[in-house]
Design a protein that fits this description.
There is one protein chain. This protein is an all-alpha fold. It has a domain of 34 residues. Helix 7 packs antiparallel against helix 8 and helix 7 runs parallel beside helix 21. The N terminus and C terminus are likely disordered. GO terms for molecular function: antiporter activity. It is a multi-pass membrane protein. Keywords: Antiport, Cell membrane, Membrane, Transmembrane, Transmembrane helix, Transport. One of its GO terms (cellular component) is plasma membrane.
C-alpha cells in the first residue's frame, strides 16, 4: 500500500519541459567545452550535469532518497557491463604479454596487403563479433592487433579504427549471443531471431556499401601512405621478444567455444584471462609476479622506439578505470533524469512530431541518439525510447520489430561515435584513436541509421502487425462458437433439469 502511495505521489510531481532541458543543455554545453575546447576528459562535465539534474529534481519535490534510488537502479543494471570492461582490460594485457596479439600482428603483416587491409579487417571483425557476441572483446583483442598491422604497412590509425568499430558493432547486432541485442528484443517482447532477421534489411546493405568504401579508401591510402611504424623493425622486435607456439591459439578458441555453448560472458572472458596468464608463464617465460603486475597496470615493454612501445604497452585493470568511472557518472546522470521523469517529459514532447510512419521512425532514431548523447549510455538509449514509442507503433499497426530495429540503429550503433559515451571512451582508450577521428570511417554505424530512416519514409520492409487482425478474427470466431456452445449447453442443462427435476443449485 505504501509503495502504491509513493508511486502515485511520484507521478504527481511534474517537471515542466523547459526545466527538464536545463540539465540536458547544461551537460551538452559542458561536454562540448571539455571535449572540443579544453580537450580534457568528459568526467567532470557528466558529474556537474548529474548535480544540476539532482538539484532540479529536489527543488520540484523529489527527496534525496528518490534521487539516490534512481542512481542505484541505473548503476545496478550496468554492473555486469562494468565488470566485463575490467576483465577486457586484463585480457588485453595478458593477450599481448602471452604473444597472442603480437603473433596476429606479425602474421597479419606477412599476408595482408595494404590495399585490401581495411575491407579484410572489417570482415574479420564482423566474423569474430558474430561468434563472440561482444563488440568490446573484438575491439580489445583483434582491434589492437589491427592497429599494429595497419600502422606497420602504412595505413593511418583513424580508418583502421573505423573499420574495427564498424565490424565489431555490425557483428554484435547480428549475434544471438549479444547482450544488447537480447535486451532490445526482450524489453519489447519481440522474438530474438525475428529481431535479428529484421535488422538484416538495414545492416546488410550498410555492410556491402562499407566494404566498397573501405576498398576505395584502402587503395587510396596504399598509394599515398607512409608507415607510422617501420614494419620490418616491428616484426624483428616481435621475434626478439616473443616465442611463437601453437598453444597461442588455445585461449581464443576456448573463448569462442564457451560462448557458443552459451556460457555467460564473465566466466568465458575470465577463462581467457587465466589461459593467457598460463601462456605468459610457461610459453613466454615470465615470472608470476610480473604477470600479476601486468594484470593490474597493463603489459609494457621498453625498446627505445616510442611508437613500438606505445603499440605493445596496453591493457590492465588500471587502463579501464577511466571508462568505468565515466560509465558510473553517466549512469548516475541518466538514472536521475529517468527516475525523476525528466527524460520521459523530453521524449513525450518529441511525440508531437509523430504524425506518420516515416516521422515515427525518424523520431525514434533521433530520440535514441539524443538519449545516447545526454545519458552517455547505449542501454538507456534503447530502453527509454522503446517504452515511450511502443504505443505509437501499435497505433500505426506496425510490428514491434520495426521499433527494435530503429532502437538498435539509433541507439546501439551510434554509441561508439560519441566521445563521452561509455562505448566511445572504451574504443578511444583501447585503440588510442579519438572518436571524432574514426567516426567518419565507421560507415556501418551511421549508415545503418540513414537506411532505417529511408525505409520508414519509403515504406520498405516495414512489417505490419497483421497478426493482431487475424488474432481478433479468430477470437471473435471463437467467441461466437463458445457463445453458441454455452447456449446449447445451457439448453441441455435446462432440459436435463426439467427431465430429472434436479435442484436449482445444480
Amino acid at each position: 500500500m505504501n509503495a502504491k502511495k509513493a508511486q502515485n505521489h511520484k507521478q504527481n510531481k511534474k517537471i515542466p519541459f523547459m526545466v527538464t532541458m536545463i540539465p540536458t543543455l547544461s551537460t551538452a554545453v559542458l561536454l562540448g567545452f571539455s571535449v572540443f575546447v579544453f580537450e580534457t576528459e568528459p568526467h567532470m562535465s557528466m558529474l556537474f550535469g548529474g548535480l544540476i539534474a539532482g538539484i532540479i529534481a529536489y527543488v520540484y519535490g523529489f527527496s534525496t532518497e528518490d534521487i539516490e534510488q534512481g542512481i542505484k537502479d541505473s548503476i545496478a543494471r550496468a554492473v555486469p557491463a562494468l565488470i566485463i570492461l575490467l576483465i577486457i582490460g586484463m585480457i588485453i594485457s595478458v593477450w599481448i604479454g602471452s604473444g597472442i596479439v603480437p603473433a596476429l600482428i606479425y602474421f597479419g603483416m606477412e599476408f595482408i596487403t595494404p590495399a585490401w587491409f581495411l575491407p579484410s579487417i572489417f570482415i574479420l571483425c564482423c566474423f569474430i563479433s558474430v561468434l563472440t557476441g561482444s563488440s568490446w572483446t573484438t575491439i580489445g583483442t583483434l582491434g589492437v592487433a589491427a592497429i599494429g598491422v595497419g600502422q606497420g604497412i602504412g595505413i593511418p590509425a583513424a580508418p583502421i579504427a573505423g573499420a574495427v568499430v564498424s565490424g565489431a558493432f555490425f557483428g554484435d547486432k547480428l549475434s544471438p549471443l549479444s547482450d544488447s541485442t537480447n535486451l532490445t528484443a526482450a524489453i519489447l517482447k519481440v522474438d530474438l531471431y525475428d529481431h535479428i532477421k529484421h535488422m538484416l534489411y538495414t545492416t546488410i546493405p550498410a555492410a556491402v556499401i562499407s566494404i566498397v568504401l573501405f576498398t576505395f579508401v584502402g587503395f587510396r591510402l596504399s598509394e599515398n601512405g607512409d608507415s607510422v611504424i617501420n614494419g620490418v623493425e616491428l616484426q624483428v622486435y616481435i621475434l626478439e621478444n616473443f616465442t611463437f607456439s601453437y598453444w597461442l591459439a588455445v585461449p581464443p578458441i576456448i573463448i569462442i567455444l564457451l560462448i557458443l555453448r552459451k556460457t555467460p560472458p564473465i566466466p568465458s572472458l575470465m577463462a581467457g584471462v587465466i589461459l593467457g596468464t598460463v601462456l605468459q608463464v610457461f610459453v613466454q617465460g615470465q615470472s608470476v609476479s610480473d604477470v600479476f603486475e601486468y594484470l593490474y597496470h597493463g603489459f609494457s615493454m621498453s625498446t627505445g622506439n616510442e611508437e613500438l612501445d606505445e603499440l605493445l604497452s596496453n591493457g590492465g585493470l588500471e587502463s579501464m578505470y577511466s571508462v568505468v568511472v565515466l560509465g558510473i557518472l553517466s549512469l548516475a546522470f541518466g538514472g536521475t533524469m529517468h527516475h525523476t521523469g525528466m527524460l520521459g517529459v523530453i521524449v513525450r514532447k518529441m511525440k508531437q512530431f509523430v504524425k506518420s510512419q516515416g516521422r515515427l521512425v525518424l523520431t525514434t532514431l533521433t530520440t535514441s541518439v539524443t538519449v545516447n548523447i545526454v545519458g552517455a549510455n547505449q542501454y538507456l538509449a534503447v530502453i527509454l525510447p522503446g517504452q515511450m514509442y511502443e504505443s505509437c507503433y501499435n497505433k500505426l499497426n506496425l510490428h514491434r520489430k520495426n521499433l527494435t530495429r530503429a532502437l538498435e540503429s539509433g541507439g546501439t550503433l551510434t554509441a561508439p561515435l560519441i566521445p563521452w559515451n561509455t562505448s566511445g571512451v572504451f574504443v578511444m582508450s583501447v585503440l588510442s584513436v579519438d572518436a571524432l577521428a574514426y567516426a567518419p570511417f565507421a560507415f556501418v554505424c551511421w549508415m545503418t541509421m540513414i537506411i532505417a530512416g529511408i525505409y520508414g519514409f519509403a515504406n520498405i520492409t516495414m512489417a505490419k502487425h497483421e497478426s493482431n487482425a487475424n488474432t481478433k478474427n479468430i477470437e471473435n470466431h471463437n467467441n461466437v462458437e463458445n457463445h453458441n456452445n454455452v447456449e446449447n449447453h445451457n439448453n441441455v442443462d435446462k432440459s436435463n433439469n426439467k427431465e430429472y427435476d434436479l435442484p436449482k443449485d445444480v
